[in-house]
Q: What sequence folds into this?
């Protein structure tokens, strides 16, 4: 499979076309805005944390297929997880997309479709924006940026 | 000798009215490399142009034969380095048809040229309630410097609107020229839309109200003949790396009487006539504005670049690029789902577009794998993106060495984008 096909896999194209959890959560306990000033990608993330667990998570925004699919996949992956586990996933995802392409990376299940972004260094920030924003929301920071 | 580029012409070049694109391409070594296993199709010229061998050689020759500091030493090399630097200034002066070398200040880039005028000319004239007028199609470099001085002085930044095709609305511009307007700062050609503004007419409107005009010529200077005196502008800013020259060298043209009356921008060596701890006096134009050791090889390279442009001939370049723009417009319009952003009647060398359901960054990544280099994003013109209600566009921008075949390659690469996102 060419690196381009690996980047734009059907799963990613599907999540781009039909992003999951693409909505707002009224009165969510945690919230953050993600913004990439270089490309203009914007992301609004709402997280409802109940008893240390992510009960609901949703996003809205505009961006490229990679950033949208990444956010969609992330919301599916962290929903139901403990906050501690979600924070751990932030670190593991970041490691997965920044490991050089010739090295093995951890299998992160469905999220592994985004490992292909490693072949496209300038696009890593597209995949990472939502995860940075999740961390900011859990840290209750107001706004974050990948630059 | 560094200044003898004309005798040392090695470019296959083109002489005459019609541009021989194969001969031109032979002069640009980078165009022969491959990327991702495909021939490079370089369509990001509005960001920076590639450099002809004549420029690369001039840089190498400068360091091989002439390197020394300028305006200082009595020794031989300092003399020829100074000659090379000043000869480049004359070349720039002639290119823009300025009246005197004293009116040509070397800067780092167009951004620095604009900042120089903002700080040494406009700031002191700007009081609370005064206005700076720009247009809605400006690059950030012709917005932010004015915002900074307006903030500091309690002045207001006004913006002349554009229509849906990306043309300036002249009536609105005229209405916004008031007795509080202290400068009109406007681009000659939009980097995001390609629109070419009627500068001579705009200058007339402003001068009728005694409002000085600065023109950002970053994009226009390598596509159109620019005659600062015929245009009547007070200041004209340009950058070397878009003129097929090196990065880090820019130009500010300013009318001599205005430059004469302005205080220095930066203080340091070379810009002084005398220094004591009590008081310093300033050097004559243009050195008053060139503090410190300048970008000597940058100026030399820019001179060589302009010599090259002159040998090919700007009218021939403009005609060639007009043909490419028309052809590229057809190519893009034939692709389902593609919409051009910026359709002004007077435009040059920029094809900004969006594609239905595909974000520009995805377009950029996919066409890159086909060897096609385009820019995607907001092009440092976020207000333009807002005006057209898009977060970003994809932009193919043309230069003298591009071909119809390359635009076909862009079209084929965009078909690939459609396949991926089908």
A:
């Amino acid at each position: 499979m060419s690196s381009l096909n690996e980047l734009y896999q059907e799963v990613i194209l599907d999540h781009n076309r039909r992003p999951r959890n693409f909505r707002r959560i009224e009165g969510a306990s945690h919230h953050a805005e993600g913004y990439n000033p270089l490309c203009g990608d914007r992301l609004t993330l709402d997280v409802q944390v109940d008893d240390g667990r992510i009960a609901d998570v949703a996003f809205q925004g505009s961006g490229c297929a990679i950033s949208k699919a990444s956010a969609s996949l992330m919301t599916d992956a962290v929903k139901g997880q403990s906050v501690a586990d979600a924070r751990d996933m932030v670190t593991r995802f970041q490691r997965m997309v920044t490991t050089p392409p010739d090295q093995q990376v951890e299998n992160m299940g469905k999220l592994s479709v985004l490992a292909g972004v490693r072949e496209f260094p300038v696009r890593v920030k597209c995949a990472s924006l939502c995860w940075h924003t999740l961390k900011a929301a859990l840290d209750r920071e107001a706004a974050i940026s990948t630059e | 000798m560094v200044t003898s580029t004309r005798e040392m012409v090695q470019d296959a070049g083109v002489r005459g009215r019609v541009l021989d694109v194969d001969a031109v391409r032979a002069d640009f070594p980078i165009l022969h490399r491959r990327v991702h296993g495909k021939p490079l199709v370089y369509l990001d010229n509005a960001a920076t142009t590639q450099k002809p061998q004549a420029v690369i050689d001039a840089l190498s020759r400068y360091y091989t034969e002439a390197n020394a500091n300028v305006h200082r030493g009595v020794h031989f090399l300092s003399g020829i380095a100074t000659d090379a630097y000043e000869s480049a200034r004359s070349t720039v002066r002639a290119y823009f048809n300025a009246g005197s070398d004293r009116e040509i200040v070397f800067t780092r880039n167009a951004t620095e040229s604009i900042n120089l005028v903002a700080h040494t000319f406009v700031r002191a004239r700007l009081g609370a309630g005064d206005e700076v007028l720009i247009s809605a199609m400006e690059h950030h470099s012709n917005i932010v410097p004015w915002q900074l001085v307006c903030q500091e002085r309690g002045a207001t930044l006004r913006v002349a609107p554009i229509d849906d095709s990306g043309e300036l609305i002249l009536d609105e511009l005229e209405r916004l020229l008031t007795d509080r307007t202290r400068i009109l700062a406007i681009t000659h050609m939009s980097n995001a839309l390609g629109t070419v503004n009627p500068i001579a007419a705009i200058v007339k409107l402003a001068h009728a109200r005694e409002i000085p005009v600065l023109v950002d010529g970053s994009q226009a200077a390598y596509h159109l003949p620019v005659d600062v005196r015929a245009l009547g502008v007070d200041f004209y800013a340009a950058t070397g790396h878009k003129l097929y020259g090196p990065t880090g060298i820019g130009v500010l043209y300013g009318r001599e009487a205005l430059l004469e009356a302005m205080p220095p921008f930066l203080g340091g060596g070379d810009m002084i006539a005398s220094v004591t701890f009590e008081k310093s006096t300033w050097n004559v134009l243009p050195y008053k504005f060139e503090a410190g050791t300048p970008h000597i090889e940058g100026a030399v390279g820019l001179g060589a670049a302009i010599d090259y442009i002159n040998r090919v001939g700007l009218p021939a370049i403009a005609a060639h690029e007009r043909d490419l723009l028309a052809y590229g417009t057809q190519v893009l319009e034939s692709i389902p789902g593609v919409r051009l952003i910026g359709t002004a009647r007077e435009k040059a060398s920029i094809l900004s577009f969006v594609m239905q359901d595909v974000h520009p960054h995805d377009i950029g990544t996919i066409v890159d794998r086909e060897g096609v280099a385009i820019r995607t994003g907001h092009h440092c013109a976020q207000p333009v993106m807002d005006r057209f209600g898009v977060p970003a566009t994809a932009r193919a921008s043309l230069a003298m060495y591009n071909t119809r075949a390359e635009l076909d390659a862009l079209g084929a690469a965009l078909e690939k984008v459609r396949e991926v996102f089908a």
Summary: Chain B has two domains: 29-48+312-420, 64-310.
